[in-house]
Design a protein that fits this description.
The protein is α+β, with helices and mostly antiparallel strands and 267 residues long. It folds into three domains: 3-36, no CATH class; 91-131 and 227-267, no CATH class; 136-222, Chitinase A, domain 3, CATH 3.10.50.40. The protein contains ten helices and four strands; from the N terminus they run ααααααβαβααββα. A four-stranded antiparallel sheet has the order 2-1-4-3. Helix 1 packs across helix 2 (14-36) and helix 6 packs across helix 10 (233-256). It is elongated.
Length: 267
C-alpha cells in the first residue's frame, strides 16, 4: 500500500488512526527511554588513570575498597553531570556558560601555528596605531573643601607658595608623567579635559568636583610616541594570537549562521 493510501485509510478510520498514534508514541517513548538509560561507560584504561591520580594525591596504593569508592565517585559525578545538562543548569549559571563558550572556542581554533618573525613584524606594521605610548601629563594639585571666597588671591598665594590647602586629596598632590587613562580613573573625564587644556607653569583654578575645589599646575605634557617592535614584541605576539582566534571563531560562526538564525523579539 502506498503512503497516500495509508493516510487516506487513517483519515477514514478513527480507530485505526488511534492505534497508529499510540504505536507512534510508544516508539518515541522507547527511543527517549533508551536515551535516558544510556549507560555510564568507564573503560579499564580510564579507571586505571583515575586510580593512578588518586594514589598520587593520597600517597598510597589503592586496595579493592578504594577502587570501588573511586569508581562510585566517578559514577556519581557523571550522573550529576548528565542530570545537570538535562535540566539546563548552564542556562542559569553564567560562569558555566562562559566555561562552555571558552572550551568551544578552543575546539574551534585548535592549536594555533607558531607565527614566524616576519608574521609578527607584518602584524606590527599593519596595526601600528596600537603600539604608541600613552600621552602623559605631569602636574600638581591643591584641594579645598569649600569654594574660595577670593579665587584670584588664593591663586596668587599658591604661586608664591604661601597657600596651604585645607583638605588632603585622596589622589595625592603631585603626579609625575601620569598616563591620561590613569588620570581619567583618578579624576574623571571632566577634570582630565581641564588638565589637557591648561597652559603650563602657573597655578590655575578652582575647578569643582564632588571632593571640593581643585587648583592645578601643569608642568609637562608628553604626546604619544611610537614604541619599537623590540619593546612591544610580547604584546604583538599576544595580539597576533588573539586576532587568529577571532578570525577562526568568525569563520566558524559564519558557517553555522544558517543553522542558528538570529531573531530579535520585539517585546
Amino acid at each position: 500500500m502506498s503512503n497516500g493510501g495509508l493516510i487516506s485509510r487513517l483519515l477514514r478510520d478513527p480507530v485505526l488512526a488511534f492505534f497508529a498514534l499510540g504505536a507512534s508514541l510508544f516508539v518515541v517513548f522507547g527511543l527517549l527511554q533508551r536515551e535516558e538509560a544510556a549507560p555510564v561507560l568507564l573503560s579499564k584504561g580510564a579507571q586505571a588513570l583515575l586510580v593512578s591520580e588518586w594514589e598520587m594525591l593520597t600517597g598510597r596504593s589503592a586496595d579493592t575498597s578504594d577502587v570501588r569508592r573511586i569508581v562510585e565517585d566517578y559514577y556519581q559525578r557523571e550522573l550529576l553531570f548528565r542530570e545537570g545538562l538535562s535540566r539546563e543548569l548552564y542556562q542559569s549559571d553564567l560562569s558555566v556558560r562562559e566555561l562552555i563558550i571558552e572550551l568551544m572556542q578552543q575546539q574551534v581554533t585548535g592549536e594555533l601555528p607558531e607565527p614566524s618573525g616576519k608574521d609578527l613584524v607584518n602584524f606590527y606594521t599593519d596595526n601600528i596605531d596600537r603600539y604608541y605610548s600613552e600621552a602623559t601629563i605631569s602636574f600638581s594639585q591643591r584641594l579645598f573643601r569649600a569654594a574660595p571666597e577670593n579665587p584670584d588671591e588664593l591663586r596668587a598665594q599658591l604661586k608664591q607658595g604661601d597657600a596651604i590647602s585645607d583638605a588632603v586629596p585622596r589622589q595625592g598632590k603631585d603626579f609625575p608623567d601620569y598616563g591620561v587613562s590613569m588620570i581619567r580613573g583618578l579624576f574623571g573625564q571632566s577634570l582630565l579635559a581641564v588638565l589637557e587644556d591648561l597652559s603650563m607653569g602657573d597655578w590655575q583654578g578652582p575647578y569643582q568636583s564632588p571632593e571640593g575645589w581643585h587648583y592645578f599646575r601643569v608642568v609637562r605634557r608628553e604626546q604619544p610616541a611610537l614604541l619599537s617592535f623590540e619593546r612591544v614584541s610580547d604584546q604583538v605576539m599576544a595580539d597576533y594570537q588573539a586576532a587568529a582566534v577571532s578570525e577562526a571563531v568568525a569563520a566558524f560562526i559564519e558557517a553555522k549562521r544558517a543553522k542558528y538564525p538570529l531573531r530579535i523579539d520585539p517585546d
